[in-house]
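Exercise: predict the structure of this protein bound to S-adenosylmethionine.
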Amino acid sequence: MGSVGAENPSRVIGKQKKLKIWSAACSTGEEPYTLAMILSNLVPLSQIEILATDLDENVLARAKLGMYPERSLNEVPEEIKRKYFEKKADFYRVDEEIKRRVTFKKQNLLADRFEQGFDLIICRNVLIYFTEEAKNLLYEKFSASLRSGGVFFVGSTEQIFTPGKYQFETIDTFFYKKK
Ligand SMILES: C[S@@+](CC[C@H](N)C(=O)[O-])C[C@H]1O[C@@H](n2cnc3c(N)ncnc32)[C@H](O)[C@@H]1O
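Solution:
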């Protein structure tokens, strides 16, 4: 996250022991697992805690398995495949240590309560499907779920046009810091 002007993860860790992250509408798990892989290069895995939620139980079941067909890893560098996956026939299985950092839960963004105190929330490619009214409410709830200084990361078509309304400060395109 250093490249987008947010706090260095190891500084965050120094203050509160663990990085608390939420991948909202995580679908089949690529997003939270990728996050754990990236962050494991910056902080010890034991200090990474990722909540991954989705409305759909079928995608969550697939996410928990952490098995991906070979073709879906076509663009993943060999080094990453070697480090974080185990090859099983035509599938790649996510390393157990990475899997242990991610907790999958069923959650409806439009109806269920949000946990609090996140350092980072990623919510990509779902808000576009919601009405302006729903988006407005969700931005307020995501903002309330972040700790002060925490970061909200949205999809590439989901720019927030009035970030100040939600106590967000733009730190880079699609990255917002909670004031
Ligand atoms: C296009 S996928 C995005 C997946 C992932 N974030 C990404 O960018 O690759 C949208 C996901 O949003 C989930 N979703 C749709 N409505 C939702 C809701 N109300 N609450 C939680 N998840 C929802 C769907 O089940 C689906 O897995």
